[in-house]
Amino acid sequence: MSDSKLPDAPSTARNREPILAHLKRLLADSRRVLEVGSGTGQHAVYFAPHLPHLNWQTSERPQNLHQVQAWLHHSPAANLPAPIALDVSSDWPPLRVDTVFTANTLHIMPATAVEMFFQKLPQVLQPGGQLIVYGPVKIDGEYIGPGNADFDVWLKERDPLRGIRDLEWLDQLAEAQGLQRTENNYLPANNQLLVWQMTRNRTL
């Protein structure tokens, strides 16, 4: 399949380098990463060859899995296994990973799915594991740049359950599961790269 026939999320080409620059540092000691909501799979096929020391496990909702499969077939890598079906609001596959990574998902999920996403993290994260989230957030109720305010309106017009999330709310959800935020990195196009560390084990 030629590149022109593959599913395309144009933003991945614009944001992959700034994200990768941080991932090289943050994933230096990781050996297995679960990417939740891999979308088209374009991030995965770009990141995995640059991080050959780890296993990058892609995942998507069953109805979207074919997009990831197409890109992994087009650009295979030794550390990029077949994608798995994962819906954050349903049962998660029995995995144990050092890092969970997700990009541009929390503003697309309904708030209830965001809550479920955080609740499921202790099932898959090893002790001391980390969560890395890329995307837009609000801080102290304020948008990072006027473009995000317009984007939030656009999201809610298409689905009122979508929206840019408050960082403080995400921190509360994380802390309830034993995770503490350790980084807030400002990236281009008014996006953040956020990192939470598992500091205690919650009884499941």
Distance between the termini: 44 Å
Number of domains: 1
Regarding CATH, which class?
Answer: Alpha Beta
Query: What can be said about the biggest beta sheet?
Result: 6 strands, mixed
Describe the structure.
The protein has 204 residues and is an alpha/beta fold. It has one domain: Vaccinia Virus protein VP39 (Rossmann fold, 3-Layer(aba) Sandwich), CATH 3.40.50. The protein is 35% helix and 26% strand. The protein contains six helices and eleven strands. The strands form three sheets. It has a six-stranded mixed beta sheet, with helices on both faces. A three-stranded mixed beta sheet has the order 8-7-9. Helix 1 packs parallel to helix 2 (42-50). The protein is globular.
Quick gist of this model?
With 204 residues, the chain is α/β, with parallel strands linked by helices. The protein has six helices and eleven strands.
Topology:
Layout: H1 11-26, E1 32-35, H2 42-50, E2 55-57, E3 59-60, H3 65-74, E4 84-85, E5 97-103, H4 111-124, E6 125-135, E7 137-139, E8 142-143, H5 146-158, E9 165-166, H6 167-176, E10 179-187, E11 191-198
Parallel strand pairs: 1-2, 1-5, 3-4, 5-6, 7-9
Antiparallel strand pairs: 6-11, 7-8, 10-11
Helix pairs in contact: 1-2
Characteristics:
alpha/beta, 204 residues, Rossmann fold, six-stranded mixed beta sheet
